[in-house]
Structure prediction request, 422 residues.
Amino acid sequence: MKKLLLTGLFISTFAGFSFAQWECPSQLAAYLKPIGSTNIYWSGELTGGTGYLTNNLIGNGMGLVGLDWSFGKSTFYAEGGVKYWNRYNLGDSKDYSNRHAGIRELYYQYKADQGSLTVGVHSARLDDDFLLNERVLGANLRINQGKWSLNILGGTVSKDFARNGTFCNVGYLYDILPGRQRALIGNGLGQTNLASFSLKYQPGKSSGTSKAAASADEFSSSEFSDGLNSASESNSGKLKIESVGAIAYHEFGDWISQKFITTGLFAQASWGNGWYFKPEVLFQSATDNRAVIYNIHLEKTVEGEKNRANLSLRYVGKSNIDSNARILNSFSNIFAGDVIRLDAIDASFLQAGIKYSFPESKVHLKAQFASQLTNNTMEEFDFEVGKKFGKHLQLNALSGLVKSSLLSEDAFLGRVEFRYYF
Prediction:
C-alpha cells in the first residue's frame, strides 16, 4: 500500500494524459526543438495516472524522449524511455509492480512528393479502417501517383514495442476479466509477422500527398479524435466518394498456428454537413475458418462558434462460411473501451461515442460505449473530462462501468491521468 501511495505521489508530480493511455500514444513530434544550432531536434514527455478499479488501487508513470535528425528528404527518428506501474489488490493485500525500459520508435524515413519509405520500428497504419494500426519492425512503402496510392507493408511485431506490449501497454492494470482470450503478440522477433498490400483510388484528389497518408498514426485513428477530414467537408448534401480501395493482409510466423489471408474492399464517403461513412467488407480465407468480416464506421462533425462535437459509431461483425470460424488477425485499428479494450478477435461488437470540445477554454467532454455482442458478452460505459493548461500540460479524469458474464459483479473504474511535454 505504501509503495502505491508513493507511486501516486511520484506520477502526480510529473505526468501527462492521453485519450487511451494503455495504447501508449505520443505527440512528441509536435514539440520538437533544435539542440543548439544543429539540425538535431528533441522533445520529451512525462505521463502517468492513478485511480481505482474493482478492489484494486492502480498507478503508472512513463518518461519518453524523442530525437529527430532530418536532412533533405531523409529523417532518422528515435523515441524511448522508461515506465513504472503498480497495482495493489485490496482483497488479498498483494502488491504487483514492474518497470521497463524500451523503445517506441526507431526508424529511417525517406519522404518525397510521390511517396515515402519507412524502415525500422515505426507506427504502421494501413489505408483501410479495420485491419492494422500497430508498431512494426519492418518496412512500409507508400507510392502516390495522381489519384492512386499504393501501400506495401511487411514486418514483425514483438511485445517489446507493440501497442499492447510490455513497454507501452498499461492493460495489465485493467486485467480483471478471467479467462479472456487476448491477441497474440510474439515474445521475440519473427514469431508474429505480417504483410499487406493495398491499392487506393481517390476520385476527388488533385495532387500531392493525401491527408490520410500524412496523418495515419494512432492519434488520427483514435476512437473520437478530431481528425475527421473536415478540410474536405461540403455542405452540399450530395454523396461524395472520397476513396475506394482493395487490400490483402497476411500473418505468419512460428506463433501463428493457423495461416490465413484476408482480402477485401474498403471505401470512405461524405455527404456534407460533417457526415462520413467508412464501410469495409473482408473475406478471410483459412482452412475450416472462412468468414466474411464487416466493418461499418459512421462519423459526424458538428461545428459551432465556440464548440465542436465529434460523434462516432462503429459495428464489427462477421458471417461464417465455416460453422466455427473466428476472426484470426492478431492486430487491428480498433481498441474499444478503456478497460475491456475490444479488438479484432472480439467480433462482433458495437462502439459508439461523442466528444464535445471547447477550443477557447481547451476543455473537452467525452462519453463512449463499447459492447461485445456474442460469445462472452461484455460492455463498458465511460465518461471523460479533460482540460489543457497552456501548451504543455493536459489533465484528464475518467470514470467507467464494466458489465460482463465473466465478472461476478460489475466493475467500476475511476482514474486521473496527466501528460506534460517539455
